[in-house]
Amino acid sequence: MSRGRLAMAAFAWLAVALTWVGVAAQLSIATPRLMVDTAAGTFTIETYPLEAPLTVAHIVALAKAGFYDGLRVHRALPGFVVQFGDPQTRDESKRASWGRGPAAASGAPIGAAEISTKRKHLVGAVGVAHAGVPANADSQIYITLDARPDLDGHYAVFGQVVDGIDVPGRLRVGDIIIRVSVQE
């Protein structure tokens, strides 16, 4: 076999090996689940670390730190979304500001807009809210209560409710998020 053919064969085998390494790496990526205990019941979110790795890592870190524990739902619109993640909701006297302003987040934006065409806003899609700049999304999580294709391409969908799909629709403004825990 000539050197040229030998080099091409070696390159082909290297390409196959790298493809398999890439597939193996994707298969070994942890897919954390978020268990959300609320006043209306419990639901489980499966995350999408392949499509939104920074978003998933950010939300998982906040959950592990107890950031969401004791927060209240600040937005609940039937047929649209239910939303939580504003630390101001721990204080009933700040109700008029819930969900608004710089104090309505953890203070550490994700810093990237991980908007994927692969994940759509179907019933139970879980995304991160932002005030016009997707890279500035932070701690506010929303769950769609109906299919919302109008949101596709504007927000990062980082998960899907896979258990307790009826619970988010029962949540009302002021309901408590008792705890968000992570199952890895």
Mind explaining what this structure looks like?
By secondary structure, this protein is α+β, with helices and mostly antiparallel strands. The protein has two domains: 1-29; 31-183, Cyclophilin-like (Cyclophilin). The protein is 22% helix and 23% strand. The protein contains three helices and eight strands; from the N terminus they run H-E-E-H-E-E-E-E-E-H-E. An eight-stranded antiparallel β-sheet has the order 3-4-6-5-7-2-1-8. Residues 4-25 have low confidence and may be disordered.
Draw up the topology in text.
Layout: H1 3-27, E1 33-38, E2 41-47, H2 53-64, E3 75-77, E4 81-84, E5 125-128, E6 141-144, E7 157-163, H3 167-170, E8 177-183
Antiparallel strand pairs: 1-2, 1-8, 2-7, 3-4, 4-6, 5-6, 5-7
Structure in a nutshell:
With 184 residues, the chain is α+β, with helices and mostly antiparallel strands.
How many angstroms does the end-to-end distance come to?
A: 50 Å
Question: What's the CATH first level of the largest domain?
Answer: Mainly Beta
Anisotropy-based shape: globular
Mean pLDDT: 88
Secondary structure: helix percent: 10-25%
Strand/helix succession: HEEHEEEEEHE
Q: Give the beta-strand count.
A: 8
CATH superfamily of the largest domain: Cyclophilin-like
> Which spans have pLDDT < 50 for at least 5 consecutive residues?
4-25
**What is the total domain count?**
2
CATH fold label of the largest domain: Cyclophilin
Q: Give me the side-by-side strand order of the main sheet.
A: 3-4-6-5-7-2-1-8
Main β-sheet description: 8 strands, antiparallel
Approximate strand percentage: 15-25%
Structure annotation, total helices: 3
CATH architecture of the largest domain: Beta Barrel
Q: Rg, please? A: 20 Å
Structural class: alpha+beta
